[in-house]
Design brief:
Pfam families: polyprenyl_synt. The structure is a single chain. The protein has helices spanning 2-5, 15-45, 50-70, 75-78, 81-106, 111-138, 141-144, 150-153, 159-167, 171-176, 182-194, 197-217, 225-243. By secondary structure, it is mostly helical. It has 2 domains: 12-48; 50-243, Orthogonal Bundle (Farnesyl Diphosphate Synthase). Helix 3 runs antiparallel to helix 5 and helix 12 runs antiparallel to helix 13 (225-243). The two termini are 19 Å apart. Mean pLDDT is 87; it is low at 1-16.
Length: 246
């Protein structure tokens, strides 16, 4: 929520006023988030399904865990693809996968269908975040709704940089410095441009998109026209996710 409110702070007022305004807007952002969470909890409780409540609660726990993982400064973790994928699952894919599974449970589907729904959501979420991390390097501020290179400027290491690091080990020293120096950001971008980091991240996203589509195709056969259309829409969504430009 903070990302929605803070960019609108007036920057040309006095330093003290800016601090007060920031503090006020942060309070509003927190309260708005609390309000939305409370509404979601009420809606969730109304379902009267403990298994679904557990799944969504798990997603919230994963979200907090993912955000905490992103804040780490430990070099071994920041430079680990395994750590990055775990963080990506927690931050993004968990909510999508557990929500998909929750829908299958609410509608009384079998355990097999429920697991396929989870697999679809997990892989769709991973593909989405991988492309999001690519767009941070290839998109524009106007198309993304945020500044391009936002992640790297905040010291966040994502898939394109991790893949580039495999080709250019010298990038590790720059990553370890945390990108606090603008010159390090420029150097990292230069190295990334020489590498296959962007392409490999896109390919990994495509792999997960294909796995998501495969999960839908593995659902039991049906003659229901609406169900078949819905399944095709879910498959189409996997391609929309990896071809989006914003």
């Amino acid at each position: 929520m903070l990302g929605v409110y803070i960019p609108f702070l007036v920057c040309d007022i006095t330093f003290l006023s800016c601090i007060l305004t920031c503090s006020f807007m942060m309070q509003i952002a927190v309260l708005a988030g609390d309000f939305l969470l409370s509404r979601a909890c009420v809606a969730l409780a109304s379902l009267r399904n403990n298994e679904v409540v557990t799944l969504i609660a798990k997603s919230v726990k994963h979200l907090v865990t993912g955000e905490t993982m992103q804040m780490t400064t430990a070099s071994e973790q920041r430079c680990s693809m395994e750590y990055y994928m775990e963080k990506t699952y927690n931050k993004t894919a968990s909510l999508i996968s557990n929500s998909c599974q929750a829908v299958s449970i609410i509608t009384g589907q079998t355990a097999e269908v429920s697991m396929l729904a989870y697999d679809y959501g997990r892989n769709l979420g991973l593909a989405f975040q991988l492309i999001d991390d690519v767009l941070d390097f290839t998109g524009t501020s106007a198309s993304l709704g945020k500044g391009s290179l936002s992640d790297i400027r905040h010291g966040i290491v994502t898939a394109p940089i991790l893949f580039a690091m495999e080709e250019f080990p010298q990038l590790r020293k720059i990553v370890d410095r945390g990108f606090h120096n603008p010159a390090d950001v420029d150097l990292a971008i230069e190295i990334l441009g020489k590498s296959n980091g962007i392409q490999r991240a896109i390919e990994l996203a495509s792999e997960h998109a294909n796995l998501a589509a495969a999960a839908i195709r593995s659902l039991p056969e049906t003659d229901n026209v609406d169900a078949r259309r819905s399944r095709q829409a879910l498959i189409d969504l996997t391609q929309i996710v990896i071809t989006r430009k914003k």
